[in-house]
Records
---
Amino acid sequence: MSGHGLIFNFKDNYISISNGKNTGACYAEGELLVFIDDTSRFNCDFLQLYWDWYQKGYFAQAFYTYYLWGVPHPKFFSIKTDNRYVEEIEKEGLLIHNHGSWFHGYSSVSLNAFLEVNGFDELYDGCKSLEDADLGLRLESKGYKFVLDKNLYIEEGGHWNIEYNPPKPEFKINPPLVDLWASGQKPWKANYCALRPEDIEFIKKTSLEKYGFKVDENNLDWQIWTNNCPIFNLAEMRKEYLKSKYTKLEIGK
């Protein structure tokens, strides 16, 4: 899946989501990136609606109904927020907002903006989830605007009926990572520098006090994660990928 960096593959078959998506962006040739989860069904004008909002200056995000064993989940909206936002969306059909934390698996972003913030933070591959919220927060900090559009609608099938259940690492550091960014201690540009000692202490303290999870410093996975922070320039890597791609095409003629 990946052609760069260190994959935090602590367990067999563990998926490095951020690494994989960043690699995909290296090969992307379009202007707008749209992230769509697997096992999803949507209308034929789905991508057009993303593009239309992009032309108006917004990165659109979709709603979805989640199906478990063929039955719709009772929670229709994909965005976890309070009722006043839900009521506004039900009334108006859309909500222009600046909540980057709502960025999720059915969101869009321009390729230029994605490269500006250096893509997904691959530190989030040490665990699972919240890599998209982190990206949204960093995009928000650069002044980009988002919109929730009820017309952007997806039906997603649950994953439990697929014979695949990736094991997770023995430590949970993604929620404290988001808190680290929100505290102002982490730069808006991902994969830019190593974790500082004070960053590591913040993660350990927040993990225990806020999420009830005590980090075992002797855990080999934890040591690998803290000592091997991914550092790269995604835009420069993309140039190299595309150069290599077209060179191969020329040779193959």
---
Amino acid sequence: MKKGLALVGVWMLLCLAGCTSDPREPSITRTLDLLQQTTAKVAALTSAIDSAITKASPEHGIVLKGANAACEQLKTLCQKQLQPAALEIQQLQRTTSDEQKQELNRKFRSQIESDVTSLNEKYLALHNKIAELKKLSEDAAYAGSKEAVNTFITRTFAETLGEFNSLNRQLK
């Protein structure tokens, strides 16, 4: 997923960065904003999982309500905003010359790299929290939560990852 996120982010932004006329620059800015929103949603999901881990108790188990909601928000962002942006990028790419691509690549490259690096860092932190959550659910004291955690990881989280992977396949 990390590789997919990086590829999606870099591909989307570098393709858009190849667009030099004024009508294209707002598309680049919107895409950068979406990348930052995605990073914030990944961070919120990580925080929600951390909260579930911190608040877990043998009596109440591991409550994933906040994590489920954060995962759904990330999935919705992918479906409703990132996928349409990918289609827009594909259309813009077709009408952009190599010279135009190079010009805006120079203009936006540092911000693109910074935003993609930030997303990758948040994504790594998310995967570390997922591993921590899974390990906690395997503790005998939390046996009652193991199925809920597995469902969260294999269904809810996997569906969200599927949205990213689908977007990545569209962009190849």
